Every structure is written in C-alpha cells, then in structure tokens.
Amino acid sequence: MPMPTHILPTTVVGSYPQPEWLVNRAMLSKVVPRTRLHDMWRLPAEHLEEAQDDATIVAIRDMERAGIDIVTDGEIRRESYSNRFATALDGIDGDNPAMIVARTGNTKTPVPRVVGPIKRKGPVELHDMQFLRENTERAAKITLPGPFTMSQQAKNEFYKDEEELAMALAEAVNAEALDLQKAGADVIQLDEPWVRNNPELAKRYAVKAINRALQGITVPTVVHLCFGYAAVVPGSNKPAGYSYLAELDDTIADQISIEAAQPKLDLGVLKDLSSKKIMLGVLDLADPAIESVDTVADRIRNGLKYVSPDRLIPAPDCGMKYMPRATAFGKLKAMCDAAAKVRREIS
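Request: output the structure for the sequence above.
Response:
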C-alpha cells in the first residue's frame, strides 16, 4: 500500500488496548512478561485465535477512525512487546526461567534461559502481518523486539558473552523481518528500550546488532526506545534525557522513535539525529485526560523547532495497551486532528 505523502504523517508505537473480554487486564497491568503468560488470556485455546482476530480488527478500525496514517495490528496477540517472539526461538528455555533484576531496578522478573544455539524455527508474526495487510488499505507497520533488548531480557547460559548472543538474536530477527517485508509490511520497527538501560554495553555492540537485524530490509525501518511504560514507571522516576541516543544515528534505520511527552524531554537532543526521521511521542500516556488538540499541536510545533516537517512523524508515547480503550482512541483522535492543524499552518 502507498505510504502517506503528506507531511506530519501520524502513526502509533505499536500497541493498542486489548479488550477486557480477551485478556485479564488486572493481571496485565502488574507485569511486562519476558516468559509466556498464558493465564492472561480469558478464552480457551480452541477459541483464542478467532477472538484475537476479532480484537485486532477492532484495533485497526479504531486507528483508522482516529485518522492514523500508518496503522499496526495493535499487538493484540502479544502478552508483551517482546516475549512472544523471544520464546518462540530454538535455544530458548522459557519453561524453566531464571530470575534477573527488572529494567526499573527494583524488582526481579522471570526471564527465558538461553541453553543452546539461537535459531528461528519458523515465522512468528507472519500471520499477524498477513491479517493486518488483509484488513486495511492504509500503510501498515509491524514491530519486532530488538536483538539488544532481547539479549538483556534473558539469562545467557550458552554463548561466550552477551554480544555473541545479541548477534545470534539479530540473525533471527532479520529472518523474521524479511518474511514480514514479503508479506506486505510498509514499515518495520525494532523495539530497543534496553539500550537506554545499559548504555555502556549498548555502545559496544547495539548498532552492530541492529544493523544486522535490518540487513536487506528495503521498506522504511524504525528503532524505538523509551523510558518505560507510564502504567509501570511513573514520570517522576524518568530521566529528562536519553543516555544512549546520538549513537543511533549510525544505524541503517530510517527513523528513530522516542518518548517525549511524559518525560518532558528536552528536544535539543534531536540535533544528534540529523540523518533520521523522528517519530516523536506527543501524547502523555500517564495523563488519564484526553489532551486538547491545541496541547498536542503545541508539542508538534515544539518538535518542528528541531526537526524539519518532512522528517517529523507524530506518535503517542509508548504503552498505549495499558490505557482504557476510550481514552486511547480519544488521544489518537486529538493527535491526528493536531497534526492536521499544524499541517495546514505550514503548508
């Protein structure tokens, strides 16, 4: 499908609220699982895929009604952004997890153990992409967990070091991304929030791993990083700037996606990403109120002080899946109306 040609095209980071009839949202709100969380789903296995398909159509239609230009499948089939893909690989033992300190630094979380060579058994998100392509005429984006982040969300018991593990994961991600591209993905995004959590390690090999994961991809590509979901990490705990950002200018990704509204990010950092398009978070997902069009328009205008209109893509901050659906829809509608308003002002 054609990509939008107008300036300030809107998109989402990836997720959209899963219905209460599909998932136990109270359980979902307590954890970002690294291993599988089968108890989260409310339907028996024989009805689950049909129910996930139905909920995915609802998510797609909501995004279209709100005016989103580049839609996703809402990540409706996922328990978290990363665990479904990570636990589907050969070499991973997700049934006998290890415990590591969570990214927030204050809790321990169960993670898969790497017990053998990482290999992709077969497609993981291919059906998701095919279903999305069949159910929208808009540009479509699919997201994958990044190799650096997955290497930090597992206990390495096989590879000589974390870099070797990350590169093996990058090969698996690349094989998946190539299949998703063939299935009609217009944009492919890697979620790499852990580069900010462990910047010294990221400086050693994150760019190398990301570039391997995106090798041969010819559609637009995105690397997304954030400070943690608003539902899990309060704004008061978030830093005012990224400890690992300028380095991403060296990736082969076309776009860098950053969370900016909730942490009130100083957008001066965007000058370090002069070769990239910027997917800018302009919706504060910690705020239960639906922002006014003028509020969101001001955030877009602030971004335009540092990024030219042809390089700016308005988006929410990440973690929309944790919001009430009516709030999520209202925020997306305000963002699309705000983008249209600013577009008229500068065109």
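Residues 45-66 form the longest helix (22 residues).
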